[in-house]
Fold this sequence. Notes:
- Chain B: This is ABC-2 type transport system permease protein.
- By secondary structure, chain A is an alpha/beta fold.
- In chain A, 33% of the residues lie in helices and 25% in strands.
- In chain B, the strands form 2 sheets. In chain B, strands 1-2 form a two-stranded antiparallel sheet. Chain B has a two-stranded antiparallel sheet with strand order 3-4.
- In chain B, a hairpin with a 2-residue loop joins β1 and β2 (80-81).
- In chain B, α4 (109-137) runs parallel beside α7 (200-231).
- Chain A binds chain B through residues 26, 62, 65, 68-72, 86, 89-90, 93, 98, 100, 102-109, 113, 117-118, 120-123, 161, and chain B through 1-2, 4-5, 8-9, 12-14, 138-139, 141-144, 146-154, 331, 333-335, 337.
Amino acid sequence: MRRKVWHSEVMQVTVVCEISGLRKSFRTLRRGPVVAVDGLDLVVHRGEVHGFLGPNGCGKTTTLRALLGLVRADAGIMRVFGEPLPERLPHVVNRVGAIVEAPNFFGNFTGFQTLRLLASSVGIPDARVHEVLEIVGLRDRARQNVKAYSLGMRQRLAVASALLKKPELLILDEPANGLDPAGIREMRELMQSLAANGVTVLVSSHLLGEVEQLCDTVTIVSRGRRVHTGKVADVIASQSTGDVRVLVADPEAALPVLAEAGLEAHRVNEHIVVPRMNDPAFVTRTLGEKDIWVSELVQLKPDLETVFLQLTGTAPVAGRYPQVDDSVRVPPPPLPVSAPVAETITVTPESGGPA
Amino acid sequence: MLLKVELRRFFTRRFGMVMSLATVAAMAVILIIAMANSHKPSADEIAYAESEAAAARIDMAPRFDECQRMSPLPAVVDGEENWLSGQDCAQYDPDLIDAANYLYGSVSFTQDVPPLMYVFGCLIAMAGMVTAASFVGAEWPTGGMTNLLLWKPRRMEVFFSKLGASLITITAGAFGLTGVFLLLMWVITSVGGYVGDVNSTWLGEFVEQVLRMAALPVMLTVVGFSIAMLGRRTAAALGALAAYAVVFEFGLRIIGQFIPGLYFLELFTLSPYVIGWLIGRYEIVDYGSSYSNYGDYVEPTTITIDRVGGSIVLLLFTLVLVGAAAWVFKRRDVANG
């Protein structure tokens, strides 16, 4: 009992955001109910930068909207800082900064007015507004109407609004959308510095190179369900085939040697690729014994983009135009197993039952 | 705190300012027309008007007394019809007979401002409706509502803060503009017309009229706000207004007047209740029933809407609409702008 209480306390401290079995469908007149999120699970620990990845229409934004109280979930459990949502959202909302989807603002307000109105609704002083405008690089454009902002500038303003509250949890939906290369880099550095200062970041993005550099952990979703989750390195490693690429002076001489050693090697341009090779040193030794010297040996690892495309089944196929709903459908989690109801049979000597 | 922020948001928006300027422009047109059609009456004109008014007061006194005596009684007294039953006796009040009634070609404050107030009040009410609709309608497509809900997830707090801000600013603006209008009319009638007898009876009647008129901007503010909140667009309120005017105020009224037996359809329009509230009495008459099968005139079937009935219907209509808007807003998925 005592151990259980301790465990629960530890969970509350380390798990900042937890979603379990989240379901949400929207009713449409033409297509009937459309399932956006179908039993999604997500866990984000304190201080992590967690990537929330998935193809278009897989339910990422709906999940974030449900978490932030903008849409009502049909089923599932959501907790932020250990508080159940949406019931306790008003109690934790001041610890959460968020931007969701497209950065829309009232065009006739200036950037400063936009932030000031939000800030004053919870008593944040104007000084903090100036501070965040400086952080996102909009200091000199603060008095300009938002309608004159570019998409990237509106995105920066959205991030500034999320930072106003000095949040402990930052939820960012496509924060790099519309940003120039310098802006993308600034955004990455900003998130890294926030994470270094203990802010937990949940970020949804399609820039998988950025996610790979930035995130500690990821959750990949497809058609409203979780496909994979874990540390970025582990997720990539889980999809690694162990292929090894070898460069030698005479590949034609090396191929029969490797075949003789029982390896299925094949030539790719000037290289030799040895698939599913768990011990690369074996390749070096085998070739070396026949005086064939290896000048380059690389263990081929997929990047996050490749892993994402594999896991979600959205890799382009020649001659085919994949549709947004063509991604992988993960089977539903097994239903809780219940013991079959025992049937009571009364055996009497007359019924002729087993002796 | 949120109400204060919403008030600031209201004043920061330009649309409120544009609508105020449009109302001022319309007010200026009314005043210019009044000035152009008025002259300062001569001493002879005033003397003639005052003598006519004095004679009218003497004539009207017994009618006023009779009205006060008979209006509380039922429609039939001792087998005879009491045509004064339920009448508003103010129309016979000798104190309300003013020399201004007998001045021609002069705009007078006491005689011309009360009817003008109806025009001006309706103008302000329309401006209030459009401004309130825009205040909330513009928030949806521009993402302002989503941003606000990310900060303030208690939706009812958001709803009533926005509604409160709309009501406070529009009501204050309505009274402010009315004050300016009355002041300018006073100046115009003092300089180029006739002020008239501003006695306590006239003043009491006029203040009551202004307060009744004040209910219109308040009501239409709530209506415009609620429809825009339901439709998530300013255009929703404007479209609803246009559709209502065409289908109900024109369509139903025409059907009610031309198709026998359907006179009651006018009950489904709002204007009878507004007139009932403002003037004190509105009658929906079935003129088709005013002649018997033998061609004899008979009293037509009449539905009377008085001040109480009018106010109850208007209040219920407004409350149902605002209640529906609040309920939908509380439950709505904010999925798209």
